[in-house]
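Re: [help] complex structure
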Amino acid sequence: MDQSKLQQHYSQQYNTELEEVRTAVLRMGGLVEQQLERALSALQHGDSSQGEVVVANDYQVNALDVDIDDRCTTIIARRQPTASDLRLVMTVIKTTADLERIGDEAKRVARMAIRLSASDHGRSLFLQLEHLGDQVREMLHGVLDAYARMDVDQAIKVAHQDKRVDAEYENVLRQAITYMMEDPRSIPLILDVIWSARALERIGDRCCNISEYVIYFVKGKDVRHTSLDQMEKEVNA
Amino acid sequence: MDQSKLQQHYSQQYNTELEEVRTAVLRMGGLVEQQLERALSALQHGDSSQGEVVVANDYQVNALDVDIDDRCTTIIARRQPTASDLRLVMTVIKTTADLERIGDEAKRVARMAIRLSASDHGRSLFLQLEHLGDQVREMLHGVLDAYARMDVDQAIKVAHQDKRVDAEYENVLRQAITYMMEDPRSIPLILDVIWSARALERIGDRCCNISEYVIYFVKGKDVRHTSLDQMEKEVNA
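Output below.
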């Protein structure tokens, strides 16, 4: 091969590596979505076996986390990316870290589902939890979609959804407190409901983080720790 | 300047940049320690004004997070680090992210301290919380020390401390549940105690994360998602 062919070959391989880590995140995202889906289903149907599957599969999420991270470090070391290539690699590293933690939260929900499956108590609160779960699942799906298409408008939409998730979480919390005060024997069980709600609310926060990374990749601006208004301004700039 | 002098100058500047981000993390760590210290003091003395200082100062932690991250990306783009230089930069990026979240947890504790300062209820639980707070503060101090000296033995020590923190947290939780069942009117207040305990427990987890990054830097091995035994094996390898 002559020099230019070699160069072309080299750069094609580099592009393949970048594309591979980008899609590996989507695979990881799909797995995490499945974990959340299953944890919520375990909660809804009081099905502890589904909860156990989630707990057992968490190692797969962790393995992808380590693998993608390692591939990114190798790309940085060998390919010395700059500009948007570097932003992509940084976006991948950060998104992976948040997906891994969403996986942890899904595992927490699954553990609570296993404990709660033994009880008929507090079923009315479960309905509320389901509603919260649906919203969070939609956020996760939406932000993975935003990442797949590097779509900043979709990313902003997810950040907006988080406001509703926070309000819904506060709602569950208030009702849970009332429930506990009315029937103190239910406290240990209702605390598990509260932990599940909290885990779901945290998943919403992490989806927002991923939204911010998408905006960072597309716009080259770090919008973490800014308001939703400022985020929108950056996106429309 | 001749070529070799230029080269030397260039490499000195590079070393300075690396050293600067390394120490910026320590500055950020010092600030986060102060935030935690103050939040715990606010809790202990029922001093809401100290709690408010913590909430007001959180933006400084966030600003350091964005600044250090930005400097790391610039180093990667301009200096194209490899081997241990690259590991250092990756360690800095990840440590910063966890410190930022420790700052968030300290802010949560401070918010609870502000709410709890209005009440005399549940003071006996506060003592337990103080004990947990002391342990977590020690962990944070220890892990910053491990980072400063890139000391893997100290990092392992911190990981061990986390086991005790988790046990202490479970302890607080059990007592809080008993307290709530005995006096249901105290539920909203005791929930704030529980949130504070949870935030402290999470800080312990994040200290463990930083321990893992220190081991990654020194040993070149990613020990996340492994057991404490495996971590020790890697360190002694």
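The helical segments of chain A are 3-45, 48-79, 83-116, 123-149, 152-182, 187-219, 228-236.
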